[in-house]
Each structure stands twice: as structure tokens, then as C-alpha cells.
């Protein structure tokens, strides 16, 4: 009985914690934004309407952000014809370009996004992965890829890109 109560408490606390570190939630419209990409082109929410968007928020000093990038690239490779893969980074254009010289990360990058990420989204945890439907409604919010322990293995291992696939496929099927 104690273990059931603990699990319920932990689940409730976990759900509250997830909501407490971001201002938006599943079912909300994604907030309007106007940010520049690495080529100085302005991208807005209106540019994305009518498309499913997988949005990753990150910064180059975030170890979990960097660790999940190879798996996010695999997700993009698999769904690139059906989904817009976009990143918003706290980093400047120059910092992001420098970072990309040594790290393969194939999303379109919106830079200098700190004011939007912190003041509008209220994001206090990174990485964050948000799936937005064709009507600009938030359909899924996750932290980075979780670390899991496979049966028979001693060490935790980061999940692969398929962690996001079920949510993405559900949204694409609508």
C-alpha cells in the first residue's frame, strides 16, 4: 500500500513539476514569435501554420541538449518530408555557427531566442521538445530523451528517437 501511495505522490509531483517550469501546456495555441534563422531570415509562427512542427529548445552549454542531437537528426531524416524540424536556441548566431562546426545538428536554427524562450514560453528546463500541429496547437511537450535502464544492463542509456515517434505519428495521422 505504501508503494502505491508513493507512486501516486511521485506521479502527481512529477506532473506538477513539468507544468511549473513552462508557461504553455498541451492544447494551448503556440505563442506568436518572430525570430531570425542562421541566414538572417525572419521566421514567424504564421510561416509554420498548416505544417506539423517538431521544435527543440536548447543551448550549446547544455549537455543533455547536445547528447540528444544525433537521435533528433535520425528523427528528422525519417520524417523530413512530413514535418518541419525547428530549433530555438538561447545562443547567438555566431555562437550557434561556431557550435555547428563541430556538432552535426540538422534542424533549422532560430537564434537569439532567449527572450522568447524565457519570457513567453517561460521555459526553465532544457532541452524541451514540443510538437505543434497544423493549426499551431501544442500537442506534445517533453523534456529531452530520457535515460532508461534496459533489462540485464547495469547502466542507464539514453532512449533513441523512437521515444518521440508515437506522438509524432498520432499528430500526422490527423
Automatic annotation (TrEMBL):
Keywords: Cytochrome c-type biogenesis, Disulfide bond, Redox-active center, Signal
Pfam families to which the protein is assigned, alphabetical: AhpC-TSA
UniProt-listed CDD domains: TlpA_like_family
PROSITE patterns: THIOREDOXIN_2 (PS51352)
Signal peptide (residue range): 1-19
UniProt keyword Disulfide bond, yes or no: yes
Subcellular location: Cell envelope
Membrane-spanning ranges: none
Domain Thioredoxin intervals: 24-169
SUPFAM superfamilies for this protein: Thioredoxin-like (SSF52833)
Protein name, per record: TlpA family protein disulfide reductase
Organism the protein comes from: Aquimarina rubra
Amino acid at each position: 500500500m505504501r508503494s502505491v501511495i508513493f507512486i501516486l505522490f511521485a506521479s502527481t509531483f512529477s506532473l506538477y513539476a513539468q507544468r511549473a517550469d513552462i508557461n504553455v501546456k498541451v492544447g494551448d495555441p503556440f505563442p506568436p514569435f518572430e525570430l531570425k534563422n542562421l541566414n538572417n531570415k525572419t521566421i514567424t509562427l504564421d510561416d509554420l501554420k498548416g505544417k506539423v512542427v517538431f521544435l527543440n529548445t536548447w543551448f550549446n552549454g547544455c549537455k543533455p541538449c547536445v547528447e540528444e542531437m544525433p537521435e533528433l537528426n535520425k528523427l528528422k531524416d525519417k520524417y523530413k518530408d512530413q514535418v518541419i524540424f525547428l530549433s530555438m536556441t538561447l545562443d547567438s548566431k555566431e555562437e550557434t555557427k561556431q557550435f555547428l562546426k563541430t556538432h552535426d545538428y540538422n534542424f533549422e536554427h532560430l537564434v537569439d531566442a532567449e527572450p522568447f524562450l524565457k519570457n513567453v514560453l517561460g521555459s526553465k528546463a532544457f532541452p524541451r521538445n514540443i510538437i505543434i500541429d497544423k493549426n499551431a496547437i501544442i500537442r506534445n511537450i517533453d523534456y529531452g530523451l530520457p535515460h532508461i535502464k534496459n533489462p540485464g544492463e547495469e547502466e542507464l542509456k539514453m532512449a533513441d528517437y523512437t521515444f518521440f515517434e508515437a506522438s509524432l505519428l498520432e499528430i500526422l495521422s490527423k
